[in-house]
Amino acid sequence: MSERVELEALDLAALLCSRVCHDIISPVGAIINGLEVLDEDDGEMREFAFDLIRRSADQASAKLQFARLAFGAAGSTGAEIDLGDAETVASAYMKGEKPEFEWQGPRVLMAKNRVKLLLNLILLAVAAVPRGGRVSVVVEGEAERPRFVLRSSGRNARVPPAFEKLVPGDIAGIAIDAQAVQGYYTGALARECGMSVTAVADGEDIVITAVSDD
User: pTM, whole model, 2 decimals?
Assistant: First the structure.
């Protein structure tokens, strides 16, 4: 049996930073483009430029707030996060993504790593429908023993690449980049929370589920 290969902590940190930068660079670039249009002082284009800057600034803010909760410390050790706040952040983030978004769940306090896991599962669910469609989130059970069910519906829905190896945390033979690290980090969060994550096809949909191990 081959030895399991894991990412070094510094490599994981660097790849997550790259992931965040990848998400932010597009709306920031659009803001710069809008400012360049304003610099030309073309009266007919000013309203277009202001609209572009507003929309791009909103998108950049939404992505940063999502990243802060999904990847950041989000409070001190042992902190809890309001699921209602997580829903608000996730809904704002999803406005800039292709799939439509739906969230069903109670507004309760939940351990921060479980909330982080749920937000990262949303990113995997989005990756399952690269051409758009719908992503629905259902949170069930008690805050201490939650069950997360995410359904991705859309044309050519598929289990995200390398899911079976990266979520369990084995990178042997897999080139990890800023996109592939998502599955690895999600799996690390799941193990920290004592939860198992699966992804299966249900007809033309992909269903991602996270449940407590005990």
Answer: 0.91
